[in-house]
Amino acid sequence: MKELQEIVGASHVLVDPDLRAPYETDWTGRFTGRAACVVRPANTGEVAAVVGACAKAGTPIVVQGGNTGLVGGAVPGGGEVLLSLARLRDLGPIDRLESQVTAGAGGTLEKLQEHARAAGLDFGVDLAARSAATVGGLVATNAGGIRVLRYGSMRNQVTGIEAVLADGTVVSRLTGLAKDNTGYDLPQLLCGSEGTLAVVTKVRLRLVPLLTARTVALVAVAGTEAALDLLAAARDRLPALSAAEIFYADGLSLVRAHAGLAAPFPDDHPAYVVLECAARVDPTDDVLEMLSGCDAVADATVASDAAGRARLWAYRETHTEAINAAGVPVKLDVSVPLAEFPSLVARLPATVTDVAPAARTVLFGHVNEGNMHVNVLDAGDRAEAVSDAVLTLVAAHRGSISSEHGVGRAKVPWLALSRSAAEIDAMRRIKAGLDPAGLLNPGVLLPPGSPRG
Ligand code: MLT
Ligand code: ZN
Q: Which one of the ligands is nearest to 128 CA?
């Protein structure tokens, strides 16, 4: 403890249980664990010194950014040093020539977006937790969000990384070269590694053009099949399409009751799709033309001004908060091929109530990627059975048990539904190579085994 205090200063080693508490429970309230202490380094050098000291003492570390994760990957399992990267918030100058910027791991997505926009550029990843989610966390989980359709997920934005290995060694690759075939791509290996291979301290990021002409459409449809018909028409006819999101009638009721929102349409409908187009010239006419020619549209409302767009997005983006306000949900984040999407959605509610009769299933997600967020409320002591039933159903639909939130602690028992024994073994060997003592985020991502899972 004394050594850690000497590295970061006594005020940045939190031992008092009240001070530790906000770091020890995740955002959903479902995952919680005790940390030996919370350490808040200010820069890469201090991170390296803290990790080196922990390595010498054989003390495990859990790494945390904005604590907005949904799979328990950034809260302690019990007794680790919790390394909070919240003070690593430096944002470098915008490199206009390369359209890149270097960002500290602890800065929020929102601050990064503001920084890029002030320079006439934008960042390709966006998601509802933007005000708290941090750059390092987005990298560690390879975050997706609402613009994957246009720009890909977090790994597609990353051109370089600085990170601290499990023994305290700093590896830095921040040149951001567009072409660089000089061996293993360590930055890409760290994307989606969930803090198990190294501690990411800085990230070199690609920026995208700032597209200020935006149009959002909220479209009512008869169900999931109709949503896919609408998606196909939108992809075909709207080159400026940047988001396609889905939610259903019960989610809308929950959101409206929670946030006091007006009904978007005179009638209720089974399902709703949010489409967003972003371009340099106003895409509204193209959106209206596509909507009027698409049989799947039961009703639609369109906004191109900032307030109107935010009003329509709120129906989708308030889902997480409204669900959490209704109880501690079992959160499952799955994706299947689009051809399997309607069948999955049709079978999910009964799959849940078969094992947890009192449970309520609320679905919403990113329809373009076949990514459904399965939120189960009132599962009581059947959380494990619900996860098992849903994830087994997903595997039977040729899907992934974690589409964008990661494996964390929550999905470890089901990893083999999505990854073969050979793949898990290869992952273990990578882990053993970079963290032989199993000190980084033990219990996260890999099933128990050697090194410490
Ligand atoms: C979202 O798409 O809004 C996020 O993944 C959060 C969630 O799943 O609750
Ligand atoms: Zn999502």
A: 1
Crossing angle of the two packed helices 249-259 and 306-317, in degrees rounded to 10: 110
Distance 60 CA to ligand 2 centre (A): 30
CA angle 365, 370, 372 (to 5 degrees): 35
pLDDT at 452 over 60: no
Which bound ligand lies closest to the C-alpha atom of 317? 1
| pLDDT tens sequence across 120-159 | 999 999 999 999 999 999 999 999 999 999 999 999 999 9
CA distance readout (Å), 158 to 109, 173, 175, 176? 14, 11, 11, 8
Ligand number, closest to the Cα atom of 129: 1
pLDDT in tens, 299-324: 999 999 999 999 999 999 999 999 99
28, 70, 131: residue to mutate for ligand 1 pocket, most atoms within 8 A of CB? 70
**Strand positions, DSSP E, 338-440:** 360-366, 371-377
Q: Pocket of ligand 1, candidates 28, 126, 320: which has the most ligand atoms within 8 Å of its Cβ, to mutate? A: 320
With a Cβ cut-off of 6 Å, ligand 1 is lined by: 70, 128, 320, 333, 373
Is the entire prediction scored with pTM above 0.85?
yes
- Ligand 1 atom closest to the Cα of residue 128 is 3
pLDDT over threshold 70, residue 384: yes
Using the mean position of ligand 2's atoms as its centre, give its distance from the Cα of residue 365 in Å. Answer: 6
**Residue 303 · residue 216 · CB < 8 Å:** yes
- Alpha-carbon separation of residue 358 from 87, 255, 333, 352, 372 (angstroms): 43, 21, 21, 9, 21
61-64 vs 80-84, strand pairing mode: parallel
